[in-house]
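Per your request, structure below.
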């Protein structure tokens, strides 16, 4: 699998991942969940589940849908009014804007990725539409065959 965009905030995260091998994303998500839960529980001397429910996924079907999600993921800190401080927030946005190189992203920044990674207006529009339960109409209108939740 290949990470295309990510946003890691204090209480949640988003990723756009391209699957390269069969079950690659499922295995990756299982490892992240298990590994981070183990680390967190040991660090804070606790036990039990850390994440609420299973992860959600969507199969991206169009360039338009990808561009919307790319802006939303990269600018998610802005949407939630969290300052983009690298101590508390990690985003591929700084990679695509040429501010700092991400070790997780293989793609080099270009004009198109910069346009969508720095689009706070689009990210906020998506968030507001989502809050009003209209996001399915905007993002998933071209989605014919969603990947079932596991």
């Amino acid at each position: 699998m290949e990470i295309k965009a990510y946003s890691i905030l204090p209480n949640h995260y988003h990723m756009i991942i391209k699957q390269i091998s069969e079950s690659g994303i499922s295995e990756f998500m299982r490892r992240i969940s298990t590994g981070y839960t183990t680390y967190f529980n040991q660090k804070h001397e606790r036990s039990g589940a850390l994440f609420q429910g299973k992860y959600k996924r969507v199969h991206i079907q169009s360039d338009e849908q990808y561009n919307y999600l790319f802006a939303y993921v990269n600018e998610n800190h802005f949407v939630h009014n969290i300052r983009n401080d690298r101590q508390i927030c990690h985003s591929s946005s700084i990679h695509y804007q040429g501010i700092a190189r991400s070790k997780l992203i293989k793609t080099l920044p270009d004009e198109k990725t910069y346009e969508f990674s720095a689009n706070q207006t689009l990210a906020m529009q998506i968030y507001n539409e989502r809050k009003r339960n209209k996001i399915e109409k905007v993002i998933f209108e071209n989605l014919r065959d969603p990947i079932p939740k596991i």
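DSSP finds seven helices and three strands in the chain.

Regards,
D.
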